Amino acid sequence: MNYARHERLVAPARAYAAVWRLGLGCAVGLGVFIALNFLYVSGAELILGREFLAPIARNGGNIGPAQTLFLLSTFFLMIGAVCLTVYVVHKANPLSIVGPLSRATRDFGRAIWAVWPVVFALVAIIFVFEAPVLNVDPTLWLTLLPIAVALVFVQVTAEEVVFRGYLQSQVAALGLPPVMWILIPSVLFGIGHYNPEAVGTAAPWIVLWAIMFGALAADLTARTGSIGAAIAFHFVNNIIAIVIIGLSDHLGGLALMAMPFSISDTNEVLMRLPSNAIAMLAMYLVIRARLKV
């Protein structure tokens, strides 16, 4: 494993690296995010009405395109919270958790172009073997597509900034070995996907899938020295699941097509996790090959 480039992310964090400071940073970041989210939702409730937000608050079930866009927009707040944390608690430039901006942009672009053949093949396989059904009117879908793509980008950027940009670099700056600074943020990322209320008994397996995803994204970040490739990896995965072919009762409000089963159908979900993991691994390997890392 060649992780020499990871120093680009770790070096800015090393000046104020301490376990207590990382703990404080996590507490401040989470607190700021919760406070901002409360203000944002309260304002939306005044403007849009409680009925608009009610489907989101149920934590599961069908939500419409507008509610899905609103939910994705809350990730702006996550970006703001972590940037404030880096600046105030760690006394660093928030851009330091992205890596060199030119490098991150280049890695993102090259990774996106490299992985699209895998995406097309995956979508074709789904259409042939799964028989997805129309979920959103095509005219409405095309109208909302630019906004949906932009907000999915915001969502994945927020998560990569937090878990790979901030947590991974801070844990690495403590001098811990790679296995620790890869696994600790990945496990936390996986725990964040634990939602038995929505997905039932499949919840632990989805957590395991998310941990694997997080570890691959962490590896890409360490190999490239920026979060650009990890954002691309995450972005393509979520575009497929949220915008192209999703589950109607699990963040499916923007998906053009929906799989012919529910997120609560545990057997159906578990049957597809291995193939999803293989597709995820294929995208990771294609990105590595394109970036030569």
Can you give a write-up of this model?
- The structure is a single chain.
- The chain is mostly helical and 293 residues long.
- The chain has one domain (4-291).
- The chain contains 12 helices and 3 strands.
- The protein has helices at 7-14, 19-48, 50-57, 65-73, 75-88, 101-130, 138-173, 178-191, 196-199, 203-224, 228-244, 266-291; strands spanning 133-134, 245-246, 257-258.
- The chain has a 3-stranded mixed sheet.
- The longest helix has 36 residues, at 138-173.
- The protein is globular, with a radius of gyration of 19 Å.
- The model has no long low-confidence stretch (mean pLDDT 92).
State the gist of this model.
The protein is mostly helical. The protein has helices at residues 7-14, 19-48, 50-57, 65-73, 75-88, 101-130, 138-173, 178-191, 196-199, 203-224, 228-244, 266-291; strands at 133-134, 245-246, 257-258. The protein is globular, with a radius of gyration of 19 Å.
Tally of helical segments: 12
Distance between the termini: 9 Å
The main pleated sheet reads as:
3 strands, mixed
- Using only C-alpha atoms, the radius of gyration works out to 19 Å
Query: Which outline best applies?
Result: globular
Structural class: mainly alpha
Helix content: over 70%
Question: Taking strands numbered 1, 2, ... along the chain, how are they ordered across the largest sheet?
Answer: 1-3-2
Number of domains: 1
Average of pLDDT: 92
From N to C, what is the helix and strand string? Answer: HHHHHHEHHHHHEEH
Pick out the low-confidence regions: none
The tally of strands reads 3
Strand residue content: under 5%
Oligomer: single chain
